[in-house]
Amino acid sequence: MILEYGLPPAAFATMRAARLAVEWLSLLKVEMFMPGRSVRLLIPALLTAIFAIGGCANTVPRTMSGTSVADVSAIRSSRLAQNAAIVAGDVDGIARYWTEDVDIRRGLGGFVQGKQAYRQLFADDPHNLFVRTPLTIDVSDAWPLAFESGEWAWHEGSPTAPVIVSGRYSAQWVKRDGRWLIRGEVFTALRCEGVGCTKPAIP
Fold first, then answer.
1. What is the pTM of this model?
2. How many CB atoms lie within 10 A of CB 52?
């Protein structure tokens, strides 16, 4: 039996429990080691460890080539590194994973085209934190293309703020000059809490 995330039941259960634990931890503050900072800052590294142990970020077929396995790992690492850049407010670090012609369909329906315009979204409002958790990554054997899907969460105001909107996303990656870059993303808002439920969707 394969679930909607492309994971067998045991792996899916592990992933779900880990994700819920991370969301719970994100509401706490680490005063001893990181005064005034949130556990959210540790999420990219924590997710990397969880996926490495549980194999939940992507179920890799036994017949997948060594090159494909390396590509999946590179894409997953890039996504988690971009998450860390978002938390740090590092706009250049966020943008380095996009192609110049990247386009995005935002969670509530807005459309953004081009690297500069996408970059400006983060520059204008650095307090909005978006975390993307990759669940499946499929690499083409024929073309320098890959497909990623997963879950995303929006925290408003600070890293300690609760999730106000969340849902699913997908992304197309393209390999150029040996690097995997995001060429397109589609986010869909499916759940909301508090003020997130007042955000208008574009019909």
1. 0.70
2. 12
Question: 51 in helix, strand or coil?
Answer: helix
Cβ partners under 8 Å of residue 143, min gap 6: none
What are the residues whose beta carbons fall under 8 Å from the beta carbon of 88, sequence distance 6 or more?
41
Tell me the angle at which helices 66-88 and 43-54 cross, rounded to the nearest 10 degrees. 160
Q: Is 100 helix (H, G, I), strand (E, B) or coil?
A: strand
Task: Please tell me the distance from the alpha carbon of residue 162 to that of residue 139, in angstroms, as a whole number.
Answer: 33
**Cα distances (angstroms) measured from residue 73 to each of 86, 138, 154:** 20, 11, 25
Residue 198 has pLDDT above 90, yes or no: yes
* Residue at 41: amino acid letter: L
For residues 100-130, one letter each, b for 16 or more C-beta atoms within 10 angstroms of the residue's C-beta and e for the rest, the string is eebbbbbbbeeebeebeebbebbeeeeeebb
Q: How many helices (H) and strands (E) does the chain have?
A: 5, 8
3-state secondary structure of 78: helix
Q: What is the pLDDT of residue 62?
A: 37
For 56, the enclosing helix (H) or strand (E) is none
Size of the chain in residues = 203
